[in-house]
Amino acid sequence: MYLTMNRFRVREGQEAAFEEVWQSRDSHLKSVDGFESFHLLKGEAADGIRLYASHTAWRDRAAFEAWTRSEAFRAAHRGAGSHADMYDGPPVLEVFESVQSIA
């Protein structure tokens, strides 16, 4: 498994708008070979910022990289910068390769 995670710092008071953007978008993920799951997680709030993280699980790194080069990726990310006012800085991408898995 290959896990990609984006961490978002959302300005306090913008949480509902942020969640609506994510819940109303067409991610195109279900049609992508190697896609396994997606989760949007809400974290703690402190100092006027609410943390969020999006986690996407992929079969392997090659599947994720193919997604980033696909038309589905471009379609899912159109207009991504149009909501900059709700963020305290850009998202931070982190990627992880599975070392152990227990199901």
From TrEMBL:
> One GO MF term, please?
monooxygenase activity
The UniProt keyword set, sorted, is: Monooxygenase, Oxidoreductase
Q: Which Gene3D superfamilies match?
A: 3.30.70.100
Q: Which SUPFAM superfamilies match?
A: Dimeric alpha+beta barrel
**Which residue range or ranges hold the ABM domain?**
2-96
The protein's matches in InterPro entries, at most eight in alphabetical order, are given as: ABM_dom, Dimeric_a/b-barrel, Heme-degrading_MO
Q: What is this protein called?
A: Heme-degrading monooxygenase HmoA
Look up and give the organism this protein is from.
Answer: Jannaschia seohaensis
Q: What is the lineage of its organism?
A: Bacteria, Pseudomonadati, Pseudomonadota, Alphaproteobacteria, Rhodobacterales
